[in-house]
Amino acid sequence: MNPSQHVDPVIATEAVLVSRQVIAIGRVSDGLSGAGLADFTLALGCRDERGSGMLPVDLTVGAGGWFAAHLNCLALPGDFPQGTQFSLTADLAAYGHQPLRLQLQVPAASFQRVSWSLARHPDSSLTRLAGPPVQLEAPLLPLPVGLRGIVVYDHDPALPVPGADVEVQDAAPVTTDALGRFSIAQLPLAARVQVRVSDGTHAQTHHLVVDYGQPVNVATLSLTRSNVE
């Protein structure tokens, strides 16, 4: 190696620590199943008495949706932060899920930069933020899905039930058309939903597992005229 290109290993290690200080740690999960999400985005914003802006961070994601957000504190303004009031905003997004915004009030003292000199290199110093990482827990709810289908008698596709009432909790009831078809624009957010069908004389309840990978779930609901499914 050319002597002019020599990099002191101590300085190189400290420079990495400065540029990748962990500012936030936490977990992103599915809000219904609790399973960790591996593919998501995180943007950190901040507001102090001067105004608002985005924090320069890099994201590392581990198993189970656990993550660490690394801050490049050298890219922050020299007077960051100002005053005593400081808030942190975390915007999270993942495919198939509703975006989530978390807002936290953080002591401004935790974001004050501190520096100290290196004993072996008195002309160099390390810079980092004073406080510990912020902890974030982010359960993301799936995007709502709809339900369409047909109501038939006795599991027989040749016997559609026209004019049947189809009811799902927390959704507006609908009535089947002349061919027994129905459509519900949005199901409640749940792993399973209860669907009640009635022709005015007979009624039956079905429990459906919601597939959030499909924007519209499809189901055939049977109405047993003996009321025994």
Automatic annotation (TrEMBL):
Species this chain originates from: Glutamicibacter soli
InterPro entries: CarboxyPept-like_regulatory (IPR008969)
Domain of life assignment: Bacteria
Designated name of the protein: Carboxypeptidase regulatory-like domain-containing protein
